[in-house]
Structure formats: structure tokens, C-alpha cells
Amino acid sequence: MIHYRKILELRAEGISLRGIATSTNHSRQKVTEIIDLAEKKELVCPLDEIMTDVWIEAFLYPEKTLEASGRQPLDFDYIHQELAKPNVTLSLLHHEYEAECRTNQKIPYSYRSFVRHYSKYADKHKATLRIRRKPGEIMEVDWAGSTAFIIDRDTGEKLKAYVFVATLPCSQLSYAEATLSMDLQSWIRVHNHAYAYFGGTTQIIVPDNLKASVTKHTSQELILNPTYREMAEHYNTVVMPARVRAPKDKSSVEGSVSTVSTRIIAALRNTQCFSIDELNEAIEQKLADFNQRAFTRKQGNRLSAFETEEKFALSPLPATPYKLSVWRTAKVRPDYHVSVESMFYSVPYEYINRQVDIRLSETLVEVYFNHMRVASHKRLYGKFGQLSTMRDHMPDNHKLFVDQTPEAAIEWANSIGSCTLKVIEYILDTAQIEKQALQSIFSLKRSERKYTKYEIERACKMVISLTQRPTVKSIQTLLKNNKKNDAEQTLKQNTEMTENNYGFTRGASYYGGEDK
């Protein structure tokens, strides 16, 4: 057996290669090979008690044990690298390994031995083991059970601060931030900051079943908070909440919460912070120490494991962080408006008395019906009771009323004819109150529903010829009379045409009698 431990210890004491070879009775070439390999794999003195010659040989030459069995050796670096890819599992890699063995006429390892050998390799050589977690796949999030405090400058009162924790299970890298509330707005904000801290997004978020993330979670149905679902869609990730009363579903963050409570919250128990920003600065320093703290049973730390094992697998961040929006429901009022924080926004009048969903952001108010957007408004701020009404949302008669301005009246009259224009100009010029004149003109405009433009223009021409003071009432009377006269004239013409068309009918005169 080669004296691996003695070779490394003598080298650490500064003994030359010739001296080490003489002391251990090994060739200088073999001694040089062992020392170079140990330096490459960062195996340095002092060595732990468990690092016997057998342990060191298995660490430096893992393939020796496998080759001695006569089976096809395993390429552990390849296996570890392939497991980082989406949808690649040890079962798939073992299947490919078996196919390669059949091609090379070698004896393959069973799946159980395959997994066991890889586990030993990963425990010794890598900071993470990819059997359970894939890099960049999951981010587990939760609130810490313990709370921090800030001090009110005016009263000296201690105010609770709630600590949010996010953990990447593969590398165990964690993020922590304190907030003064656990409401939805704080929940979304800390998620934005967590993704910014990690520098990318994961495929899945695993939260607890708090109201800010989950509305309803049963074995048959899962309903997410609409805002939280929208945030996940913005980051192109999927929310998979832990089962109710099943903390093992997010065991990594549960463990990190416990450690963070000790290493950060408890460590800051004697630190006086007078604002949430000061507290988060202190947490940031403790968090850096926490993530750079060496593993107890593995080489490296959380940050180094993240940099080498997981960072590459994260999806890129969107161009802009998610902007918080809040969802509400409302019933469309009879005036085709919805009330939002004492402000009123219009929707198409066809949705009167319908239940709609409303999405509120800092700048926009969007109204949805059956997941389809039917209205969008710029959000109103300031004095209560303001209205945002779009003309397209109004019924036709409301549009006519809203459109009543002197300019619009003249434009309409000009589209009818010159006589109508003279009448409208006269009414506008002679009215004592503009609103009264516009109401009269509006009444005349509504006549367009029953009468053609030609009929309105003819009535205005007749009014002008009869009086120098035309009124809307006189025009409406003429329209009615003209309509009646036209109908009588048409009926008479039809009768005459009927008699002419049927002249071959023999009357009494034909037979020598008298027509009655």
C-alpha cells in the first residue's frame, strides 16, 4: 500500500522529493504524481483523522476501485456535467452507460451501484450532489419565524421587522431581507430583490401557503394569488407551493431559516438600527459572511458552490423587474363605470351589471371580463370622485349629448346643408345661454334618427322662407307635417298608378251603366 498520508505530510513540512521518496520507499516519479494530483484536487494538510491511506487513494484515484472489478469505468465528470442539463436524470445516464458497455463488451454496473459510486464521488469532489436537486431548477422562499427589530427615533419603541429568506437548494446559496410588513407588496418586492441578488431566475418557486402567494390549495385544486401568478409569468417561472403541513417540500429553506435566525437575526440582537435600510445593510454584511462560511463536511462554501455549480443554469433576468399590480373585482355600475379607490373608470356599456376583474398598477387601471381586457385607463390620483370616461364606451345617445359644443353643432349643420347651417348659426347667436342653445340643437340632431338629411334641410329652408326667427320647434313641426304630406302624396300616386295599370278592367260604363 502506498503511504499517501505520509507523503503529503512530509511535503507539507518542506521535505524534498528525494527525501520523501527515500522515507516512504517509493519512486520520485510516483511521489511527484501523488503531490501534483493532491494539489490539483486541493487536498492539503493538515489532514483529518478519517483521511487514511485508503480514503486518500479513493479520493485521488476513484477509478482504481472500479477498474479492479473488471467493469466499464465511470466518467464522473461527464455524469456530473450532464446532470446539470434540463430533464437529464441518473436513470437516463445509466441507460446510456449500459448501451455503451454492450458496445464495448464490458460488464456494466447496476443502477444501484451506479448511483452509489456517483454519490461518493460528488461528496468528495463537488460541493453539491445533483441526485436530489438540479442547478437553477428551484428557489424556495419563506418568512423566518424569528423577527428582527428597529428602533423608532421619536418614541424609542421597538418595531418588528420580518425577515424573508430565499434559498437555492442545489448550492444552498441564500438571500435574506427585512421588511416592516408581510403584505403582498412586501412579498413581491423581496422576490424582485432575491432574483436580482442571484443574477437570474429559476424554473420553479416553492413558497408556503400564505395568502400573498396562494388563494386556495387542496388536493384537487390550486388557485394562486393573481398578483403572485403574474409575477411568476413575468419571470418565466412556475409556482409550486409546498403541500399543507409538509415542510419537507421546502426543506432547504426551512434549514436556511433556522441557520439565518441564528447567524443573522440572533447575531444582530445587540445592534441598534433606526430604519429598515440600516437593518438591511447590517443583514447584507451578515449574509455575505453566511454564504462565504466554509462547509463543514465538504470543500468550498455556498457562494463558491453557486459560482461553479449553479449560476450557469439560471435563466436570464427580464429587461425590467416586475412592477407590482393588484387584482380586484367589481360590478359595472348603470352608468357603465367601475369604482376603484373612489375613482371611476368607464367600460363599454354592454357590460353594465357584469362582474369584472380589475388590475391596478402604479400607472394603469385595466378591466378584464372572462380573462379578456375590455378597458384600459391611466390611473387617477388626487381628489376623490374623478372620472375617466372614454367616448367609445358610451351608448349612441350619450355620445350625441357629450359631443354638444358650438363647433360640433356647426360641423353637423354644415354636413346637412346651407339652410340648416343658417338656422344653427341663428340659434347660437341669439340664445342668451349657450347651454340652452346646445340643448335645442341636440333635440334637432336627434331628429336625424327619423328623418333624412334631405328632409331636415328642406324643413329648414321652408322655415327660413316663412320667418326670420326660426326655432327648433317650428322645424320639428314642419318635419312632421312634411312627412305626413309626403305619405299622403305617395299614397295618392300609388292609387293613380294602380288604376292606370289595371285599365283593362271593365266597369259599369262598359256595359251601359253608370259608374258610382
* SS elements, strand count: 14
Distance between the termini: 145 Å
Query: Which percent range fits the helix content?
Result: 40-55%
List low-confidence stretches: none
Task: Please count the helical segments.
Answer: 19
Rounded mean pLDDT score: 82
Task: Please report the first level of CATH classification, the CATH class of the largest domain.
Answer: Alpha Beta
Reported CATH architecture of the largest domain: 2-Layer Sandwich
Helix-strand category = alpha+beta
CATH-defined fold name of the largest domain: Nucleotidyltransferase, domain 5
Count of spatially separate domains: 4
For the report, how would you describe the main beta sheet?
Answer: 5 strands, mixed
Can you describe this structure in just a few lines?
This protein has 516 residues and is α+β, with helices and mostly antiparallel strands.
Characterise the protein shown here.
With 516 residues, the chain is of the alpha+beta class. It has 4 domains: 4-125, no CATH class; 138-313, Nucleotidyltransferase, domain 5; 326-394, no CATH class; 399-500, no CATH class. The protein is 45% helix and 15% strand. The chain has 19 helices and 14 strands. The strands form 4 sheets. The protein has a 5-stranded mixed β-sheet with strand order 3-2-1-4-7, sandwiched between helices. A 4-stranded antiparallel β-sheet has the order 8-11-12-13, with no helix packed on it. A 3-stranded mixed β-sheet has the order 9-10-14, with no helix packed on it. The termini are far apart.
